[in-house]
Amino acid sequence: MATETLQADDIASAARRLRDRPPWESLAWAAERFAPRVAFATGFGAEGCLVIDIIARHRLRIEVFTLDTGLLFPETVGLWRRLEDRYGLEIRAVRPALTVAEQARDHGEELFYRDPDRCCSLRKTEPLWHALSGLAAWVTAIRRQQTPERKGTEVVEWDGTFGLVKVNPLAAWTHEEVWEYLRAHRVPVNPLHALGYPSIGCAPCTSPVRPGEDLRAGRWRGRVKTECGLHARGQAASTCHVRDGAEA
Ligand code: SF4
Questions:
Q1: Which numbered atom of ligand 1 lies nearest the CA of 117?
Q2: How many domains is the chain partitioned into structurally?
Q3: How large is the average pLDDT for residues 166-182?
């Protein structure tokens, strides 16, 4: 397998240079540096819709895909189609190996209630692993403010979990800045936000939040779980081998 070697210093230098720059600059850097081996993974949260707007507005060569767990809210699926229509782009569905019915057959009914980590592994982490396996870099819409685990997020960093560069153009943005942008640019968003769902994942694991609660309090309510496992803080590497595009 051919590899391209990227020194950790190169990543740190890009992170320093892009840290205080507007998001479109880190996205443009990612497209210029890695296209066609760069993609944006979105779950159609407010931040994800914003990143799609920037990618489309600047016509950046960054593929967009979503992890279609088969358990999304109908409103989320509707937003997916609206975004494709509005921006004239295809948002590719990445699906698990098992349908929801097959998972119930093999692992029992409602695995998401009994063992959400296993369910997330089957329906999100493993499909993401396959989706990223041919890429050199991926883009996410995570922000430092969202969870304690995301506090150390850099605009550009090495993802030691999945073994590729990770670009987080909204790392430093606040919730208020995100919504200001969305309103100013009339970006389509999930109608569930207006019904008390600031953070939206799969339907069985998402509930509305009450006034004063944390914005992600409705995710896996009543459990210690706060993340799907997609954004674990991977170990930094001194030399990073960017994968060849032919890798399966
Ligand atoms: Fe399963 Fe819930 Fe994770 Fe979706 S968020 S993959 S339903 S555990």
A1: 8
A2: 1
A3: 98
